[in-house]
Amino acid sequence: MPVTFDTETIRLITLFENLTHTNVKDCLIDNDNNTVYLIIDEGEIGKAIGKNGASVRNTENMIKKDIRIFEFSNDIERFVKNLIPQVNSLKFKQDDGNNSVEIWLDKKDKAVVIGREGRNLKIFKELLQRNHDISDVVVR
């Protein structure tokens, strides 16, 4: 399923790429939380963050939004761990063409990963759907 970007998203991607000299694979804007989620090419996360986080801070100040950066990977397991570093283990399931992933977390990490009213989990599901055709994430 191809993802189409609106004008605001394209402008943010271009601005971030020009400031950090990295390649953005995907961008998701959450206006409710005033946050931008960026998926960066594999191996470019350090360049995207910048020395002591300078690149991210400069971009955040320009766009007046928080930025969360994740590194892309063709390996689905590695991509899930890049999105959710607290994952202890994970298992993939395929039922009737629907792909899902079950993740196991420590009890203390569940609230952080799920987020208030499930916000973080919705973002993770959206990013996984757009980049690896994973339709559901189950937290255990």
Notes on the structure:
The chain contains six helices and six strands; from the N terminus they run αββααβαββααβ. The chain has 140 residues and is of the alpha/beta class. It folds into two domains: 7-71, K homology (KH) domain (GMP Synthetase, Chain A, domain 3, 2-Layer Sandwich), CATH 3.30.300; 76-139, K homology (KH) domain (GMP Synthetase, Chain A, domain 3). β4 (89-95) and β5 (98-104) form a beta hairpin. α1 (7-20) packs antiparallel against α3 (54-63). The chain is globular, with a radius of gyration of 15 Å.
Q: Could you name the key traits of this structure?
A:
single chain, 140 residues, alpha/beta, GMP Synthetase, Chain A, domain 3, 3-stranded mixed β-sheet, 6 helices, 42% helix, globular
